[in-house]
Write a structure and sequence with these properties.
Aminotrans_V_PyrdxlP_BS, PyrdxlP-dep_Trfase, Aspartate Aminotransferase, domain 2, 7-stranded mixed sheet, 14 helices, PyrdxlP-dep_Trfase_small, 2 domains, 446 residues, 4-stranded antiparallel sheet, transferase
Amino acid sequence: MTEASETIPTEATGPASSLPSAAPTAAEVKRWREDFPLLSAEVNGHPLAYLDSGATSQKPRAVLDAERNYYEGLNAAVHRGAHTLAAEATLLFEDARAAVADFVGAEEDEIVWTSNATEALNLVAYAFSNATVGRGGAGAERFRLGAGDEIVVTEMEHHANLIPWQELAFRTGATLRYIPVGDDGALDLDAAGSVITERTRLLAFTHVSNVLGLVNPVEELVSRARAVGALVVLDACQSVPHLPVDMKALDVDFAAFSGHKMLAPTGIGALYGRRELLAAMPPFLTGGSMITTVTMESAEFLPPPQRFEAGTQRVSQAIALAEAVRYLQGIGMDRIAAHEDALGKRLLDGLGRIPGVRILGGQAAGPRVGAASFDLPGVHAHDVGQFLDDQGIAVRVGHHCAQPLHRRLGVTASTRASTYLYNTTEDVDRFLAGVAQTAEFFGVDA
């Protein structure tokens, strides 16, 4: 197995692991892989090569056990009951919040539970629009938008970090602008200088492109936003699972990530927000569990994070997410990053040798995670995916919820292979052999 001698250089920094930063050995990856029951399955008569972790990751037994054990031995409503089970469930629920906060370099009260990252991003967008109509008082002034104000995103955003801002612009009269992508797939940072201006109130961008695997220059983009007094929202869905991330070091104001992409169940995500900003923001969802006093005419709200957590909470999922965090910390995020760096290089190098393959963003310089998307001219991505699936190789096909980026790069769809800590060089090599066979079968020319 190819080993990396150092971690992938990124803008994402965090607490150093006690483990070496070198990529793991093949034997170590094999041991990790054995923790994931589904990876021992066969698909269409072949051993499963799961290369779709960018969409959703597999779950280790420790995480599956954590959720099941909660339901079997401690199931109760949190923050509501006075009985022993409720008190113990609440303690475990809040311990999970503390574990996740520590994992991303945040304070405990700076983590808001959501159903997923999409909800987290919408929470911020709707809180801004609620502030715009006068909710939140004087402290919410910095969230209020109107005609003449501008919201800036990038051309490579996942729809979850684009459509909420389109809607916010529509509701407030603000203008939505975007930093374009160059021909190589990287952000055009020269153009960013004319897009981010004194009118910019909010900059929202992805840490890692879910299509290209490129790690964006967070420090430079945040610096540009700070220079004009804009707030920064980071889509960290593809970075928190794969790289050491410290929100304080990144100096962003808000960030969103999802549990299901980092070994945890579906139905749990998190919003990171600076304490002082969360305290000033009006709520998005309202109802039970987020109030102090209610009359027939009005209500007063709890401080964050509970202010943003109306209704029955995602208790088992949060507990399982904390267990996923402990699993990742036990390996070391720097080692995971190094492993994926090696696999990513193998993916890109191998795809580059297959006649006719066009790697999206393949010419862009800079750090990456272990993911690559490609196009076989004349062959629909769904046909590529089906051909690979027949061999037990699971990949993602389509526009990956990033239609503008695909349109910019001149394709309607692509095939994406994305790796994680449990993938092996054999998985990558089977994928590359499958792509070569697909190209040959469909008669793709170089």
